[in-house]
């Protein structure tokens, strides 16, 4: 019986070694406020609270985080149609930096901006773990 258990354990371990590699995960604590998932991060080196918005095509940040403006775009949001400046921004998420072309807008009252599809899609998966209050970003 002990031999059978040992053999089974070795087969499981060797299966992991030969199978798919363990993927790196970044765990970021979040809080929920007024139904929005918020995380603490930084934009262009300044601390920021960002809303996670999987339906947003691009990340948008408050005008106070504006770096070098490259132009402008028209966006349609819950606030209506807006012409807003765009530019490169560095967003640091759990120690990982992302350089994105972000729109700079009047931010919602609960956050300094939002993380959209342009950052979220850089990961293999994003899991919302409500039980532990964590977002799990898997590379």
Please write out the topology.
Elements: H1 2-18, E1 25-29, E2 31-33, E3 36-43, E4 46-52, E5 60-62, E6 69-77, E7 80-93, E8 96-105, E9 113-115, H2 117-120, E10 125-129, E11 134-138
Parallel strand pairs: 4-9, 5-8
Antiparallel strand pairs: 1-11, 2-3, 3-4, 3-7, 5-9, 6-7, 7-8, 10-11
Keywords for this structure?
2 helices; 15% helix; 3-stranded antiparallel beta sheet; alpha+beta; 139 residues
Q: How would you describe the overall organization of this protein?
A:
With 139 residues, the chain is of the alpha+beta class. The chain has one domain (23-138): Acid Proteases (Cathepsin D, subunit A, domain 1), CATH 2.40.70.10. It is 15% helix and 52% strand. It has 2 helices and 11 strands. It has helices at 2-18, 117-120, and strands at 25-29, 31-33, 36-43, 46-52, 60-62, 69-77, 80-93, 96-105, 113-115, 125-129, 134-138. The strands form 2 sheets. It has a 6-stranded mixed beta barrel with strand order 3-4-9-5-8-7. The longest helix is centred in the N-terminal third of the chain and has 17 residues, at 2-18. The radius of gyration is 20 Å and the shape is globular. Mean pLDDT is 80; it is low at 1-18.
């Amino acid at each position: 019986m002990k031999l059978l258990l040992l053999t089974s354990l070795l087969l499981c371990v060797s299966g992991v070694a030969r199978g798919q590699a363990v993927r790196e995960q970044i765990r970021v604590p979040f809080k929920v406020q007024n139904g929005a998932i918020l995380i603490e991060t930084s934009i262009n080196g300044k601390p920021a609270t960002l809303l996670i918005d999987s339906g947003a095509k691009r990340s948008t940040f408050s005008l106070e985080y504006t770096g070098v403006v490259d132009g402008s775009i028209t966006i349609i949001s819950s606030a209506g149609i807006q012409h807003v400046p765009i530019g490169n921004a560095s967003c640091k998420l759990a120690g990982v930096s992302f350089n994105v072309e972000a729109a700079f807008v009047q931010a919602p009252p609960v956050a300094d901006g939002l993380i959209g599809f342009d950052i979220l899609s850089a990961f293999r998966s994003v899991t919302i773990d409500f039980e532990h209050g964590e977002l799990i970003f898997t590379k």
